[in-house]
């Protein structure tokens, strides 16, 4: 049997604690997000003329621009160009041009369309970008084929049109308009560049002024004003300004929406078309769709939307006379529908996507080229669509991207949904793991049994098992298959029943709730609109199949965790809340809610909390930390005010679930250092912004007594300061002076550990006490901890800290640090951060036995600590950890920008068989041994008998 034992041991040992390549996408998932795409800056584009494959480009409301692979919806590249000044983002691209140009606020940049590498960028003072276009016209001077950019910059009292060189971003010319008009848009025809501005006229109405510029010099060629008085009141009443089109158009309607007026930019003629208002309903929205390509036919489509349906008219423009004539119309259809335009060479195609079908027509005639039935309609309203049409002989194939109201987008190919990107997850403000109903049921039954009399509990249990018998036939039926699949399957251990692949529920600022399947790469199980934007979520709590989400205005929503259906809602009530406290206990691995209490802006609880045994620590708007006990919500029992000039920036406490496996630390020589364990520790961070001092105060939450305080000089208050408390230690990080050398500055990570006494085997003043109380001091006051600290220099800022949680706390903890500058999350093992590491000498043999190694001031993040390995996980604001039924494993979820989830096994997966463990091999070994024994036993017996005979 030695072989078998060796096999077993070999399977259990794994060489290093890190994420293996075959675990990527198995144990972790990542939603790399852009945010809600802005639909006039979303398009399909062939990034290079050498290939026919196109990518999808967009810039989101969060000003993140990026490229998506239309095949699977995977992110190809992205860049966050968001500016503090704000302003909507714009993105432009041209087929065959290997750059896309994006703008946001006061910033314009050009990026390689294929690889997302920066080509040039520019920033200007005053004003923000109102419009950009790529010049499609051929330019003999451009060597690389990268097209020039025309940008319109709107300042306070002027407008500037600039032409930027496609390769370098250098300004070729500039046209300044200081007439006081409102800069509106730029457009181009094959020969001219048009600058369109709105000149304010009488009675709040505006006239459209068109200035033609010479593309080479930027000189004004001519200027004319369209008589739009009475129709146009501002930029919002112009329906459409065409750009890069053979016949650029401006379209608007009169005030009563009875006639549509169209001007071909560059001409003075305004064509009027009567709107056929035959639906019997009020027209709510008119949109104009025209191709964006110089070589395309001068056709356009007008889409009319009413409350319950929509129809569309297609118009042709006569280029010589600039006359607009109606060609045909697309009939009125009930339900929502969206239109998209696409080109193949000069031909223009319109795709109409409604609830039931997708239809492609050519702009030239009303014959339907392709029609597909749609999957079930979505409750999330479609807002716009972008399509790519390819011709296949006489018919066409189409892929469309539908942008939904929630900000999510979907690719639909021939009527089938290929992928969905849940972009509204980018605004995630709260998240938790769903609690499954059955488990709670069992826990409840066990609790009942625990509380009943012996006989009652016995009868209850027999009844429960009798009820379970009804599942027996099914279980027996599945048994053979389970055995076979468990022996043969590649995945030796399916850990789902240990609570490692619980769904995650995420609530977003836009009012949506998502459920993500952590077992299937974070796929969306359901999503629902639960509230209006902005949703000020203060608390999220999951129990027995439902999730309750409370917001700052006192309202709450209960959602069914398995379907997303809204179970109940409660209306807004009471004052505005600063936060909501969830009094939570822990029962094994599942949280138990004891009560809920709102905290007002001034730090006082909205009501006394008589029914909950406990105390409460809050921060107030005026920078104090307050302590409260049960019966009083008017006067705090204690308050902590930091030294004058310091402002409280953060207060952290130990996590609700923070089990301590051992009350002491066994040293190498078998003596014990007792941990200072106080479940009421509060770590307060305060900053003096003028004197650049940060103070860290460790308080006892019950009495408000300061147990320990640290002051750091030379701190940069604009850099992130993160802190965390767990067990008997706390950690914080900041940017400031290096201790003992005020001329050097850097990012630092400091760790302090609390012990009852500095002497081993000594429990300090508490030694003889049977119990102690922070409040009712008899004789000696609350003893102070013995604090051992050490700090490390680190290479980059830490924006958030958390600690891994496991069921019993036996597994070593890891400090989870979010690195905002390298877009990753590292898990630093606690032994590395042991403040007792020997300084300036090698450890003695006793210390080495304890696992201590020599202190080095610079902490280099080991590649194996990166939970995110090579992924680019951006914008993380919060990291959560949660225990599973396996002691070795802790669940981790990060959200705030991207959403990332993984499992951490800080002491390796000691209670799980590894992937290399083969059950089949084990079974075969046992069988082989059994055969061997059966075969050899008679021979051996015979031999022994023979030997006995020979001996005598
Ligand atoms: C792109 O498509 C066209 C026609 O559909 C074909 O002639 C051409 O060879 C294709 N080019 C590449 C690089 O695949
Ligand atoms: C269109 O017709 C409906 C009903 O006949 C009317 O209410 C509406 O005012 C008309 N005009 C527009 C622009 O909606
Ligand atoms: C949630 O929905 C499922 C399916 O409709 C239902 O079986 C379950 O009872 C619901 N749970 C709650 C708590 O309403
Ligand atoms: C054990 O080692 C610690 C230092 O590591 C020392 O302070 C203590 O006195 C030692 N105890 C005994 C009993 O030797
Ligand atoms: C983008 O950058 C801005 C500031 O530069 C930052 O505030 C924002 O959080 C970033 N967004 C994401 C999703 O990373």
Automatic annotation (TrEMBL):
It holds the Pfam family Beta-prop_EMC1_N. One of its GO terms (biological process) is protein folding in endoplasmic reticulum. The keyword Endoplasmic reticulum applies. Residues 18-423 form the EMC1 first beta-propeller domain. Keywords: Endoplasmic reticulum, Glycoprotein, Membrane, Signal, Transmembrane, Transmembrane helix. Residues 726-949 form the ER membrane protein complex subunit 1 C-terminal domain. Its main location: endoplasmic reticulum. It is a single-pass type I membrane protein. GO terms for cellular component: EMC complex. The chain crosses the membrane at residues 920-940. Residues 1-18 form the signal peptide. It is found in: Endoplasmic reticulum membrane. The keyword Transmembrane helix applies. Component of the ER membrane protein complex (EMC). Belongs to the EMC1 family. This is ER membrane protein complex subunit 1. It comes from Penicillium argentinense. The lineage of its organism: Eukaryota, Fungi, Dikarya, Ascomycota, Pezizomycotina.
